[in-house]
UniProtKB/TrEMBL annotation:
InterPro entries linked: Ets_dom, ETS_fam, Pointed_dom, SAM/pointed_sf, WH-like_DNA-bd_sf, WH_DNA-bd_sf
Molecular functions (GO terms): DNA-binding transcription activator activity, RNA polymerase II-specific; sequence-specific double-stranded DNA binding
The family this protein is said to belong to: Belongs to the ETS family.
Domain named ETS: residues: 322-404
Composition-biased stretches (Basic and acidic residues): 281-290
Record SMART domains: ETS (SM00413), SAM_PNT (SM00251)
The protein's name: E74-like factor 3 (ets domain transcription factor, epithelial-specific )
A Pfam cross-reference name: SAM_PNT
Cellular compartments per GO CC: nucleus
Compositional bias annotation for Low complexity: 235-272
Domain PNT stretches: 77-164
Length: 419
DNA sequence: GCCCTTTTTCCTGCTT
DNA sequence: TAAGCAGGAAAAAGGG
């Protein structure tokens, strides 16, 4: 039996549902400690990737079915891949509300990350739901999962529980930023998959091309076709290449999202719409013909696809969300959480620097439910703050800004802590 | 519905 | 040469 054989017939390889099923299969397979050789995994991933972007490279798998491993010889060669590929949905749900399946998946991630031999586990303990799990103390965990995995699971569970308790206690705005940081940084650890060679073709496959569910997109995992953003209709000359040669995801955050100093690459914002078909990959001539109009594109596609941006409609009189400068400030005043995204250059003067500019932009985009946010756009918004004296110019220094006299909440005296 | 504010998007030119 | 900066222009969208 082949991996692809167990997928639903109507799940197109490379499509969202295909990846979802593939992901689930991988997770289950790895959890039950069966093995697959890494070249086989590479083949599967390559297949999904090539099919997804219609590169024209021959369909290796369909032509060589023998390359596919049987399901019980699968082995996840890169534990980080499988443990991160699903964006760890359980970070969005209180552990008390986890279903047995959720618990199983959570355990699975830890099994993979700790390289624990899951074959020693009894399945009988894997049918507990989150509520039952939360009742267990450290000793009980060790009793069931052993001295290696038990404490690990216990610690992780406590973290999740604490996070949700804190969330219900403290300010929602600040928490949102912190949560965003947490989710974001969790994904920073994901290593790039190795470069895969097929014949003469060499394709660098990264997690961003597989992980299409960021933390905000979790509820959107449906099989319904999605209407592409207007970006698929209008293309600017300087955007098209990066936007259609690959897809990305807000849950990606690799080193290539940083500033030049952190080895940054081009941000690739159109990531929440993975259903890229041939029809969306335009030729150079088409690109130059179909220029995107100036100004902000209408929100039509987002509202039409409420499953993508699954959030309640904003009340007209609801208070505005956090402003950009406040979002930046919140990152800065939590240095233990921002982990190298930004740093203070001069804490007292309010001078700060973007270290991973594109990553911060992606976070801002996540917050605003805007998948195409880039540092370029973010920085434009930042420059508007000069006039209002929320920010001051710092001449001659790239990625460096300074809080102005109309900003607040960042001074040591104001927040009452030494940083 | 109008107006204002706050972005967002695109663009050109310049600097590092 | 690429990345970042500066700022104009236009538009979206929320709120008064």
């Amino acid at each position: 039996m082949h991996l692809l054989d167990i997928l639903p017939l109507n799940s197109k390889p490379g499509g969202r549902f295909f990846l979802f099923v593939f992901e689930l299969v991988c997770k289950r397979v790895s959890f039950f400690s069966v093995s697959m050789s890494s070249p086989c995994l590479s083949s599967v991933l390559t297949h999904a990737n090539f099919t997804m972007y219609e590169t024209g490279i021959p369909d290796v798998l369909s032509q060589q079915p023998s390359v596919l491993p049987s399901i019980n010889t699968l082995q996840i060669s890169n534990p980080a891949y499988s443990s991160n590929i699903n964006s760890q949905w359980y970070r969005q749900v209180s552990p008390h509300c986890w279903t047995a399946d959720n618990v199983l998946e959570w355990i699975s991630d830890h099994v993979e990350s700790t390289k624990f031999d899951a074959s020693t586990l009894s399945l009988a303990y894997c049918t507990m739901d989150g509520h039952t799990f939360c009742q267990m103390n450290l000793e009980q965990m060790i009793g069931i999962f052993g001295p290696q995995l038990g404490p690990h699971l216990h610690e992780s569970l406590q973290e999740h529980k604490t996070k949700y308790e804190l969330q219900s206690l403290s300010g929602s705005e600040l928490n949102e930023t912190c949560q965003l940081l947490d989710n974001f940084l969790d994904n920073l650890n994901f290593p790039l998959l190795s470069t895969i060679r097929i014949g003469q073709a060499e394709v660098a496959v990264s997690k961003r091309e597989f992980d299409h569910r960021d933390d905000y997109d979790l509820p959107s995992l449906t099989m319904e076709p999605m209407t592409p953003l207007r970006d698929t209709e209008y293309l600017s000359d300087n955007q098209s290449d990066s936007e259609y040669s690959s897809s990305s995801n807000s849950g990606m955050f690799f080193s290539n999202l940083g500033s030049p100093e952190s080895g940054s690459g081009e941000s690739d914002p159109e990531f929440s719409y993975p259903l890229i078909s041939k029809g969306h990959i335009k030729t150079e001539k088409e690109e130059s013909r179909l220029k995107r109009p100036r100004g902000r594109p209408p929100k039509i596609s987002r509202e039409r696809n409420s499953s993508i941006y699954d959030c309640p409609k904003k009340n007209k009189h609801a208070p505005r969300g956090t402003h950009l400068w406040e979002f930046i400030r919140d990152i800065l005043i939590h240095p233990e959480r921002n982990q190298g995204l930004m740093k203070w250059e001069d804490r007292r003067e309010g001078v700060f620097k973007f270290l991973k500019s594109e990553a911060v932009a992606q976070m801002w985009g996540q917050k605003k439910k805007n998948s195409s946010m880039t540092y370029e756009k973010l920085s434009r918004a930042m420059r508007y703050y000069y006039k209002r004296e929320i920010l001051e110019r710092v001449d001659g220094r790239r990625l460096v800004y300074k809080f102005g006299k109309n900003s607040s909440g960042w001074k040591i005296e104001e927040i009452g802590m030494g940083m």
